[in-house]
Amino acid sequence: MPGRHFRKNRHLSKNRYLAPMSGVVLAGALAGSLAVAPMDGGSGNPDETRPVPAPVHRAEKAPAHRAEPEPEPSKPPADCKPSKAKEREYTNGRIPVDELCPLPQQGELLRADAAVAFYKLNAAYQERFGEEMQVNSSYRDRDKQAELYERMPAGMAAPPGTSNHGNGLALDLGDGVQNGDSPKFKWLEKNSEKYGWIHPDWAYSNPYEPWHWEFDAGQSD
C-alpha cells in the first residue's frame, strides 16, 4: 500500500510540473506570432512590421465657379411671315390655327405680324429680367370668347366677336405685369411701343386691365 501511494503522488507531481511547462511553450509561441504580426493588418511580411505613416491629403483647390450661360432668346418659326398675315382677312375669332404663329410660351398663338413683334419684345424683356414673359392668354376663337363672356363679371370680357384676342392681336400677361405698380409693368409701359406693342388707353380705367396688351397692326415690320 505504501508503494502504491508513492507512485500515485509521483504521478501527480509529474503532472504539476508538466502544466507550467506547457504554458511557457504556448506563451512563447504566442509571443513569436505577435513579433511577426504586421502592425497594419497586412500579410505578415517583415518589411510591413513598421507602421506606415498615413498619407497626407492636400486640400484640392476648388474649381472656379463658372456662371451658367444665359439662354438664347427664342426666335419665331421660319414660316411665320408678317406679310402673309396682312394679306389675309378673317372674321374675329375665325382665324384658322395653321394661319397663326406659335409663341415661345407653349400653346399660345398670335397673328404672324403680332407674333414676330412679340418675339422681339420678349427678347428685350428677357435681357432685362432674366426670363421670358408669362403669357396667360393670346388668340381666342369665338367659342372661347363666348365662354369667357358668360363666365366673367360684367365688363371684364368683351362680347364675342369684338375682342382683339379674336384677331390674334392681344395678350394677357402675368408674372407681375398684372400689377400696374410693378417694375415689369413700368418697363413694358416705357419700352413696348418700340416693338409695336401698346397698353391701350381703355385698359387704364374702363375696365382697369394692366395685364392686357395689344399689337398695333398699323406698325411697320
The strand order across the widest sheet is: 3-4-6-5
User: Percent range for helical residues?
Assistant: 25-40%
Structural class: alpha+beta
> What characteristic shape results from the CA principal axes?
globular
What is the CATH C level class of the domain at 83-215, in words? Alpha Beta
Q: How many whole angstroms does the radius of gyration measure?
A: 45 Å
Order of helices and strands: HHEEHEHEHEE
Q: Strand fraction band?
A: 5-15%
The separation of the N and C termini measures 138 Å
Instruction: Report the mean per-residue pLDDT as an integer.
Output: 79
In DSSP terms (H or I, runs of 4 or more residues), the helix count works out at 5
Main pleated sheet? 4 strands, antiparallel
CATH topology of the domain at 83-215: Muramoyl-pentapeptide Carboxypeptidase, domain 2
Unreliable stretches covering 5 or more consecutive residues: 1-49
* Count of DSSP strands: 6
Query: Can you name the CATH architecture of the domain at 83-215?
Result: 2-Layer Sandwich
